[in-house]
Amino acid sequence: MAMRWSPFLFRWHRWLGYLVAVQVLAWILGGLIFAWLPFQAWVKGGEVLRKPQLSLPVGWQLKQQDLPGDRGALLALQSVATPAGPALKLRYAEGGEVWMRAGGERLGPPSAAEIEAFARTLYIGEGRLLGVERIETVPRRLGLVRELGERPGPVWRVRFDDRFSSRFYFDPRSGELLAVRNEAWVLYDFFWRLHLMDYQGGEDFNNSLLRAAAAAALFLVASGLALSALAVRRASRRAFRRVSKHPSHESF
Length: 252
Known about the structure:
The strands form 2 sheets. The protein has a 4-stranded antiparallel sheet. Strands 1-2-3 form a 3-stranded antiparallel sheet, with no helix packed on it. The chain is built from 5 helices and 7 strands. It folds into 2 domains: 2-36 and 205-244, no CATH class; 46-181, no CATH class. The protein has helices at 2-36, 39-43, 112-122, 183-196, 208-245; strands at 74-82, 85-92, 97-101, 129-135, 155-160, 167-170, 177-181.
């Protein structure tokens, strides 16, 4: 039985080892990256970003008299910082989103000059501003990384030449800050996707690839234990046969 099972287990153990080793290496490297990179300061851009400050004027609720009435129920209301100052983002059941100034007026889309001025007030790093550009799509990085996830374009992008090549993204409709990205974030997100084995959204902890890899790793360990047990069994039998063929004799 041992001789029949050993070649089968060894063959599967060897090929699974090749496959699992690649993913285990990605898991280990990802763990090192996650532990080593300062998350808030580097990955989230905390050392170059001054978070937008919001200060709504007194009585701002009374000034919202001209809210749209043809968009269905109001689902959410959020205060946001924009190049034009504090504003309100209203999300309706029908008709999407509407932006209003805190004083009650409609908020118009910002210009490139306004985006640049706003970005300068938020940036506290040591780099120079390289440019302001309106892009239709955010290109992928390292083949997998999507800096704004599934959000469709266009967006305003402001680039700085600091050590991490910081990039600030702004909404083209309101001018609010959407995200801060840099090379540390790209590296982190790349290994995060490898870690989860979710190469699209990067958030699915229960995807089929991850379950299959976990099952393969479990079978690899189980087959290794079985091979070890069979090897010990063969070694014991050989030792027993040697003892049987050459018994020790004691003379008195």
